[in-house]
Each structure stands twice: as structure tokens, then as C-alpha cells.
Amino acid sequence: MQLPSGSQTPGQATSSEPENASRPSVVVNENTDISLLTQAQLYDLNQNLLEDAVPNIPLIGPLSSISTLRAEYEEGSRSFVNQVDYLASQGYLSVRRARGDGDCFYRSLAFAFIEYLLNSPQTNVAVALATSLLESTIPMLEDAGFQKLVFEDFYEVLLSLIQQIVVPEPGGTTLTSETLLEAFQSPEVSNSVVVYLRLVASAQIRNDPEEYSPFLFHPELGEPMGTREFCEHFVEAVGKEADHVQMTALTRALKLNLNVAYLDGRSSTGKVDFVEFRDPDSQLENGSPITLLYRPGHYDILDKRTAEAL
Amino acid sequence: MALAYTRRLNKELAEIHAGTPVGINLVNADTFEKWLFTVEVMGTSEYEGEKFLLMFRFDNAYPISAPAVQFVVDDTHKAPVHPHVYSNGHICASILGREGWSPVLTVIAICITIQSMLASCKKKEQPSDNDRYVPRAPENPKKARFHYHGTCWRSAA
């Protein structure tokens, strides 16, 4: 549905006759004369536009060359271009984009983690370790006060995806890069995984308030927040972006090593700072940590391989 | 996979059949599209002797996104007069919107929240923008945008 800009607030006054609260929704196409719609219809239309505000790009995209990232800044900021070039010089040849829906950190991390397991030289061992780690999150979530009923469906989606690396689906095949991408592009699978990681991060924070409570601040107001309130509003709620606290909690709970490249356009030399999240018990070798790309308000996945090499 | 939300609702229903909190009773859960509960406030409150019918509507985005929840308003049922409840039954509560919903909430958790919202009411009055909101409200309350700042404000959007 495309509307000319400005059509959400038409200058022309329309009559606002009394209407019932329930009425058929308006079908709008390119032939619709916006000025003939009632106030109520315009209100609905605007609401629908708000619903569709997130651009229609895949939840997780295919691997694309880092030059596509560079192209975004070539017309604009030189310092961003320099930083993209720096990433390329460090061997990051590709980027895999996540939809900017507020879940991109969790979604990117989950995808990169499962892909890491998939490409591990000994998948049997990697999957067995990941499975036992995932199993250990169940008592953790229960300790945090979550009912099994509310999280077990999400858990099973993530577990079966990881299991599918070594055990073929009934009547199907084992997981490949392609089917992993398909799974992450399907909202039901993808969002279930996101929710589970959110609950793991939340449980980690809730179960260790002494460790985390000094760092719990309202992201907009900057005021300190209670653990429960913070977790309910900014960890468990879908669509709320992760900040340092959530990232720390999640990487610790999952014993992951993670590098986050901060592309902020602030460096004069073009160098990119990598923030390292390290867990002493991590099963990921230090040499091949998962690397995410951070640009203000958004996360994508960085990759040293090219799409052709996959 | 296609019907993950019905799997979750089935589990919730099994719990509901095993027992609901005092003042909350299942009226109908014959389909996975729509459930109905009666809600009463127990003990002393502004709503003594009143019983309300609460309607839940689900789609396959549940429980990633909230169900559509409202009081039924028809010949035999009225919405409670409350600063956060519009006369068409729509409810302004943060847990029902994007800001406050989380998949760890359940149908019963929503019932309890709404029951305590009524129980804590000090003065029965309609939302200040009731007359402005109701004639223009979308049929589905999930399509409305509410702001939550202690009192109830409908979004100017």
C-alpha cells in the first residue's frame, strides 16, 4: 500500500459523522481518493501504516559483500566509509543484515551461533555441548520465576534447530546454511528463538541482582530501575533493543565469546573498536568468535567468508 | 508448526480447567479464536456486585504478540466505569500493548492484572477522552494506539 506523502494529515476537512465503533475496514488502493475518506477511516488507515512501518526486508538476509555496506555511506560520511574499509582490511568481507525491528541483536546472535555450530569441524561434539548448555537454561528460567508452560515451546524450537544439525528432520534432511536461513526468515521459528534468548538474558539478570542491578537504567530516561521492572520492559518485551547489560547477560548465560564492531563514524583514523564479551567457560575458540556489527540502534552479522565461498 | 499458538493455548486451557483464581471464571473457550471470562472484584471495592465479561481474541502471532482483550458491551453486559476503560469496552493497559506485553504473560495473568486494576480503583469515572475515542475506535483494540502515563491518553497519531 503506497500513499503520497502527507496523506496522513489531509488539509481538507472531512465531516465526522457519528459512526458505530464496529465498521468494515476500508480497502485503500492507488485509485482511492483520500479526501473522500471519513475521519474514522483515515484514522484506521494511519494505524495500518504504523503497523507496516517496519520495512519489508527479511528477518535475516543472505550474506552480501561488505561493499554494499560501503555504498550506503559513499554519498555521505567519509568517516563511516573509512571504518567500513578498515573492517574489510581486517578480513570482514561480508555482512548479513537483520531486520531493524528491535530484535536484531538477539536474532543475529542466534543465527551466528547456530551457523557456527553448523560449520564446526566436529558437529557432533559442538551440538552435544550446545544441547547440554541449552538444557541447563531450563532450571535457570524456572529459578527466575518463569512457568515452564510459557517458555517450553520456544525452547523446543531452538533445541530442534540445533539438533537438526546432526539429526535429520523426520522425512527430511539435516540442517544446511540454506535451510537455516529459511528457518530464520520464517517469523514463527525466528521469533520463537528470539523470545527464548530474551528469557535467558532476563533470567540471568533476575537470578543475579547483585551483579546486574547497578547497571539497570531506563534506556530513555536514564533513571535507575528495579530488576523486575527492567527485565519485563527492556529484556522480555519483544522489539526492545539490547544494550550492554542484556548482551553481557546473554553471552554469559550461553557461555559465548562475542565481538561487536562499533561502526560509529567517530574515529578519525577509520579504526573500528571491537567490544569483546568473553566468557571464561566458553566453548567457542578465541580465534573464531561470533562478530556482530553495531551501528547506532542496529545490529547485523559480520562474516569473513564471501557468499561465493559458502 | 503451523499451529504453535493453539499448542500454547491448549496448555493454558489445561491449567484453567484445573482451577482459576477467585473471581475469574471461564465462560467459553470452544475455539482458539475467542475466549470469554467473567471477572468480578472480590471484597470491598467500587465494583461490588458487578460482574464483567472479558473477551480475548487470538491470532497465530500469540504469544509473541498480545491477544486482543476487551470487555464485552452488549444488551446484557456493560464495561466497568473506570479511568482506563472506554465505554466500548476497550482497555488502556500497558501489558496489552507493545510496550508492556511479553510472551511470559498468560490469559490468566491478564485477567488477574485487569481484576486488580479494577480492585484498586478509587473513583468510578470514564477516561477523559472517552467521547473522542469511542466513535473513532478501531473494531479491534490492538489497532488502537494508547499512551500510558499513569492516566490514559489515546495517541494523537
UniProtKB/TrEMBL annotation, chain A:
<keyword id="KW-0833">Ubl conjugation pathway</keyword>
<feature type="domain" description="OTU">
    <location>
        <begin position="93"/>
        <end position="305"/>
    </location>
</feature>
<dbReference type="InterPro" id="IPR042467">
    <property type="entry name" value="Peptidase_C65_otubain_sub2"/>
</dbReference>
<dbReference type="GO" id="GO:0006508">
    <property type="term" value="P:proteolysis"/>
</dbReference>
<dbReference type="InterPro" id="IPR042468">
    <property type="entry name" value="Peptidase_C65_otubain_sub1"/>
</dbReference>
<feature type="region of interest" description="Disordered">
    <location>
        <begin position="1"/>
        <end position="26"/>
    </location>
</feature>
<dbReference type="GO" id="GO:0005634">
    <property type="term" value="C:nucleus"/>
</dbReference>
<keyword id="KW-0645">Protease</keyword>
<dbReference type="GO" id="GO:0071108">
    <property type="term" value="P:protein K48-linked deubiquitination"/>
</dbReference>
<protein>
    <recommendedName>
        <fullName>ubiquitinyl hydrolase 1</fullName>
        <ecNumber>3.4.19.12</ecNumber>
    </recommendedName>
</protein>
<dbReference type="InterPro" id="IPR003323">
    <property type="entry name" value="OTU_dom"/>
</dbReference>
<keyword id="KW-0788">Thiol protease</keyword>
<dbReference type="GO" id="GO:0043130">
    <property type="term" value="F:ubiquitin binding"/>
</dbReference>
<dbReference type="InterPro" id="IPR038765">
    <property type="entry name" value="Papain-like_cys_pep_sf"/>
</dbReference>
<dbReference type="GO" id="GO:0004843">
    <property type="term" value="F:cysteine-type deubiquitinase activity"/>
</dbReference>
<dbReference type="Pfam" id="PF10275">
    <property type="entry name" value="Peptidase_C65"/>
</dbReference>
<dbReference type="InterPro" id="IPR019400">
    <property type="entry name" value="Peptidase_C65_otubain"/>
</dbReference>
<keyword id="KW-0378">Hydrolase</keyword>
UniProtKB/TrEMBL annotation, chain B:
<dbReference type="InterPro" id="IPR000608">
    <property type="entry name" value="UBC"/>
</dbReference>
<dbReference type="InterPro" id="IPR016135">
    <property type="entry name" value="UBQ-conjugating_enzyme/RWD"/>
</dbReference>
<keyword id="KW-0833">Ubl conjugation pathway</keyword>
<protein>
    <submittedName>
        <fullName>UBC-like protein</fullName>
    </submittedName>
</protein>
<dbReference type="InterPro" id="IPR050113">
    <property type="entry name" value="Ub_conjugating_enzyme"/>
</dbReference>
<feature type="domain" description="UBC core">
    <location>
        <begin position="4"/>
        <end position="157"/>
    </location>
</feature>
<dbReference type="Pfam" id="PF00179">
    <property type="entry name" value="UQ_con"/>
</dbReference>
